[in-house]
Amino acid sequence: MDHRPQAWGRPRDDVYGAYDASYLQNSGPKTVTQSPVVTGTSVIAIKFNEGVVIAADNLASYGSLARFTDVKRLRVFLDSSVVGFGGDVSDMQFLDRHLNELAIDEAYDAAEPTPETPTSPGTLNAANLHKYLQKLMYRRRNDFDPLWNQILVAGLDAASKPFLASVDLRGTAFTSPSLATGFGSALAQPIMRKYAATEEDAARLTREQAVDVVKECMKVLFYRDARSLDKYSIAVVTKAGVELKENEQLERQSWAFAERIKGYGTQTV
Amino acid sequence: MTSIGTGYDLANSIFSPDGRNFQVEYAVKAVENGGTSIGIRCKDGVVLAVEKVVASKLLKHGANKRIATVDRHLGVVYSGMVPDGRHFVDRARDEARAWRDTFKTPIPTADLASRLGGYMQAYTLYQSVRPFGITAIVGGFDSELDTPVDGEVGSGPKCGAGGKGEGKKHGGPFLYMIEPSGLYWGYYGAATGKGRQAAKAELEKLDLSGSGALSLEEAVKEAARIIYVAHDDNKDKEFELEMSWISGADGPTKGKHQEVPKALREEAERLAKKAIEKDLEGDDDEEEKKEGDKMEE
Amino acid sequence: MEFGTSGSLNEDGIHVDMDRLKKGEVNLGTSIMAITFKDGVILGADSRTTTGAYIANRVTDKLTRVHDTIWCCRSGSAADTQAVADIVQYQLGLFAMTNGKPPTTQTAASIFQEICYANKDRLSAGLIIAGWDERHGGQVYSIPLGGSLHKQSYAIGGSGSTYIYGFCDANWREGMEEGDAVNFVKEALKEAIKWDGSSGGVIRMVVLTAKGADRHLYLPDTDYAVRHN
């Protein structure tokens, strides 16, 4: 401790080194930007004839530490859309709460419940929701305070056609018959494109086919993504609503061939 | 109105020598001119209903809702000056939202009533404002289940949390009525507006707290009937019946405040009309006078 | 250790709490945990506070009361976590008075999270919130560095926790009796203290149930065998 009156109580420079004031003064633009800490990995989704299948595993990593293994990254909006989050979990929670409030605002002017839509039908469909999220994400990046997420929005558009689109921390948006974030864009997307390269292909896929493709992709991701988990959530969005399963386990994995692998070249025993 | 000309009624925040705030009492008069609103708290939910007086034939049928959703599980109906009511609802929504932002949970009905009571009361204190010309009925269903924090991820032990208080019930349906003075009480049945006397008399006949308490669907039908009975005082004007309900998570609205579905409302109205006709026939020989404003404070 | 302004994770994700500290800042390079059990929750912690390799305090109390039966375990910067805990303690006191009922663990966790999330670029605080309330029983919430909120059946934190992930996963059982639960916490913290240079000293525990808060203390010179209060 420094005992000189002008600096009493502060760490001594000769012991601890001079205080690094760069922490306090930052030249350049003001940034409140963080980097992600607790993170989720890929989200993948594919359209089929009547809707969209979307999936993400239940892991929240802390660096390379698989710290939280029960984090549900698929969130339902107004019983009619699903939002899948990759990236920072605290920002995901912020967005989830924000969307929750948006859904309550919708209920202020909810239409009368009918036999077809027994729960209060919202007026925001997945396409509206995606546009909203894109504007929100882009605004936050312009404030140099981005929400560190890659997001997929799955649901139906105004014409009740399957809708699937993505938005990232910069506010960049895409739409495609199949989409994937993070590692999924390298590992899952090529597989999904085999089945749904175009909208026409996707429109020919059945629900069962789409679910199978997604499950296969989750398996590949578990094989090759070191930040993934074999427990995952999967949701199917159709006109009938959202079917969300949050505690799925990867099945029929292929590991037995390891028996034939001996050494790394010439070794045979 | 003995107060007129004494000067003590000219401004809010001035007491008369006998301890009355005339501005508040005038506000109550404004409420007494409004269409009847009622609320019923029964064992498995809350029903809100209002006699929406049709001011003009040019208004669209079923539009211009009078019952407002404040949060998923909360509804408000009011009698009196509609613009005052709209502002009051805005405030209620702000309060519910502020609670959510701080505590990440839905606001309990009691806490909302308390805050709105405080808000109403503040408008009896200052020269610069007038009291609200409404009496509001707040209905809500506080979840009986263990609800997660908004945005929660992860879960506790599968066997459930240990050391819970045994046999205690939490949450349930709640009903409050807030008057222009800021006074509010919790009720089993609440009525305000022009037909409140008749409505209260009918509400008192219902078993709302006892063991054979009304079910939610019965309460919807009673609510419709009571509005029709109360309309007797306002007979020359046409009206629309607007009703909403809130059940628990296992009930028909899944814990949400929603408009009563058309089919059920129309059935309730049909029964209400039938009951009224029967009453009219019976009235000739019975001549039962409906007084008994016992709930008034 | 060099300090940067990035706040980014080490690849191993381990001593990340230290990276976020400014030079000379007092660090709770810590082993903390909280678990649910049959009647409520138990919080546990070591007692070492370090400034670099120097032990600034060897009998620290890292278990902090924010309401009668809602407590937290603090890791990261001592200054930051004390400031946050003080704010939450004030807020919960206010809540109890204005609403006429005690706050729930959820309420406490929400307020903690709001502070940690809104100030994520200024704070280095890794917190575990554990509490008992009549409605929800015992609950454990974890708030790691970025300010996310995780409900857990048990939570471990601080630099020492990385050495006991295996131990805890292998030995954890739901709905333990109090004696077994205390033993689980003690054995886990003993391992953490053994392998983590930044953890050490005594083991403190707080048991929260319907009966209120009960403190435990175990000392290293008796191999943590005897309960001292």
Label this structure with key terms:
heterotrimer, A: 269 residues, alpha+beta, Glutamine Phosphoribosylpyrophosphate, subunit 1, domain 1, 8-stranded antiparallel sheet, 5-stranded antiparallel sheet, 7 helices, flat, B: 297 residues, 21% strand, disordered C terminus
Characterise this structure.
The complex is a heterotrimer of chains A (269), B (297) and C (229). Chain A is α+β, with helices and mostly antiparallel strands and 269 residues long. In chain A, 29% of the residues lie in helices and 26% in strands. Chain A contains seven helices and 13 strands. In chain A, strand 2 (43-47) and strand 3 (51-57) form a beta hairpin. In chain A, helix 5 (189-195) runs antiparallel to helix 7. The longest helix of chain A is centred in the middle third of the chain and has 20 residues, at 89-108. The mean pLDDT of chain A is 91. With 297 residues, chain B is of the alpha+beta class. Chain B contains six helices and eleven strands. A five-stranded antiparallel beta sheet of chain B has the order 9-1-2-10-11. Chain B has a five-stranded antiparallel beta sheet with strand order 3-4-5-7-8. In chain B, strand 3 and strand 4 (74-80) form a beta hairpin. In chain B, helix 2 (82-103) crosses helix 3, helix 4 runs antiparallel to helix 5 (216-230) and helix 5 (216-230) packs across helix 6. The longest helix of chain B has 25 residues, at 262-286. The model of chain B is unreliable at 285-297 (pLDDT under 50). Chain C is globular. Chain C has five helices and 13 strands. In chain C, helix 2 (78-99) packs across helix 3 (105-118). Mean pLDDT of chain C is 90; it is low at 1-19. In chain C, the strands form three sheets. In chain C, strands 1, 6, 7, 8, 9 and 10 form a six-stranded antiparallel beta sheet that branches. Chain C has a five-stranded antiparallel beta sheet with strand order 11-2-3-12-13, with helices on one face. Chain C has a two-stranded antiparallel ribbon with strand order 4-5. Classes of the chains: A alpha+beta (269), B alpha+beta (297), C alpha+beta (229). Chains in contact: A-B, A-C, B-C. The A-C interface holds A 11, 15-17, 19-20, 22-23, 26, 32-38, 60-65, 67-68, 71, 88-90, 92-94 and C 3, 5-14, 16, 22-24, 113, 117, 120-121, 142, 144-150, 152, 162, 165. Strand 6 of chain B pairs parallel with strand 10 of chain C, so a sheet runs across the interface.
